[in-house]
Amino acid sequence: LSALRDHVVWPKKVLPGLNSGPARHMHGELAAGLKGYMDAILKNPNRKLSSAWRQGLQGILDAYLGPIPEKFTYKGKEYTPKSYFETLNVNLDDYIDFTSWTHLSYYEKHPVEVADNWRWEQAYNVPMEDMMAIIDNAIENGYTVAWASDVSETGFTRDGIGIVPDMDAIQKQAAQAGSDQARWVGAAPQGQRPTFNKPVPELTITPELRQQGYEEKTTTDDHGMHLYGIAKDQEGNKYYMVKNSWGETGKYKGLWYVSEAYVKYKTMDFMVHKDAIPKDIKKKLGIK
Q1: Stretch 160-170: mean pLDDT, rounded?
Q2: Backbone angle region of 82, left / alpha / beta, with phi > 0 → left and psi within -120 to 50 → alpha
Q3: Full DSSP string of 110-130
Q4: Of the candidates 139, 115, 137, which has an alpha carbon nearest to the alpha carbon of residue 126?
Q5: Do the strands 95-99 and 267-273 form a parallel or antiparallel pair, or are they unpaired?
Q6: Which pTM was predicted?
Q7: Are the C-beta atoms of residues 184 and 173 closer than 8 Å to each other?
């Protein structure tokens, strides 16, 4: 939100940054270029930084993303980034960020302790059950959820599914059925994620398990997505419908179905409109 407050916004069409040929942004190449440049600058070979390094950094960003426009024309009207943002009628103060960790006091604001949060933005820390209640209340009342999560888990497949498989229970289930585990999990080539062929047992997620993943850095701030609906599988298990940003990939053409267990376990933080928060939780937070 602070980035929007400081720099506002403009339509993607006026800042294409795609002059190098590909039809989509090459974020991997951009990140590698930025890191190489800054690593060299930080070595400080002249033992004193010049004033030119900022221009060099901005030049790399402009080459890949396009320069920030002072003015632009969109749908026949001229705007500045500020005047265009004003047409969207978005009150940034209406949006609240949440997280859930046991080492922080509940119902108070704390910085989100991840490397990407270099502005040290704060979020309300709430118990895990309140975290899930806010997400459910938002979706059930027509709101959506901006969701930051870890997507490095084996259960977050590249075919549109996100689950927390209980591998011990899966092996036991397969043995009882007189078959091999691959019938449930799928046989994946070495080094690739499995494709789960049917609903499988998942781990029971507790606040303590969430915290363990955070402290062991197996839960990290990987990716931002958009929760917008709730669905159930053929066995009645609850899933959240997720808009991803990886193009029309996977079985569901860019959409993911992420289990309730996965959201409990791997949510780093999330943001909702304040009117999407249940009234009892709002009262605990002192939000009007």
Answers
A1: 87
A2: alpha
A3: EE--STT-TT--EEEE--HHH
A4: 137
A5: antiparallel
A6: 0.85
A7: yes
